[in-house]
Amino acid sequence: MDIADASTLITHREKEVLGLLSQGYKVKEIADLLFVSHHTVQSHKKNMIQKFNSRNTVDLIVTAVRSQIV
C-alpha cells in the first residue's frame, strides 16, 4: 500500500495516537490521556504499523513524519 493511501485510511483516533506517539508518550500515558485502555492504544498502533507497512513503532513514526502526516 502506498503511504498516501495509508494516510487516508487511518482513523481520527489513530491519528491522535500517532501524534502522541511521535511526541514521545508511552502507550499507558496515551491511554490515560484519551480515556481508553492500553489495549485499545496497542490495537491502534498495531493497525497503523500494518497500514503503513512499518517494521515497528519507530519506523511508523519516521514514515509519518517524513510524509507530513504528523
Which secondary-structure class do the elements indicate? mainly alpha
CATH topology: Arc Repressor Mutant, subunit A
Low-confidence stretches: none
* Series of secondary-structure elements, N-terminal to C-terminal: HHHHH
Q: What's the total count of β strands?
A: 0
Number of helices: 5
- Beta content: under 5%
According to CATH, the homologous superfamily is Winged helix-like DNA-binding domain superfamily/Winged helix DNA-binding domain
CATH class: Mainly Alpha
> Helical percent range?
over 70%
C-alpha-based Rg, rounded: 11 Å
Structural notes for this entry:
The chain has about 70 residues and is mostly helical. Helix content is about 70%, strand content about 0%. It is built from five helices and no strands. It has helices at about 5-10, 10-20, 25-35, 40-50, 55-65. Helix 2 (about 10-20) packs across helix 4 and helix 3 packs across helix 4 (about 40-50).
List the topology elements.
Blueprint: H1 3-9, H2 12-22, H3 27-34, H4 38-51, H5 57-66
Summarize the structure.
With 70 residues, the chain is mostly helical. It has helices spanning 3-9, 12-22, 27-34, 38-51, 57-66.
Which characteristics define this entry?
single chain; 70 residues; mainly alpha; Arc Repressor Mutant, subunit A
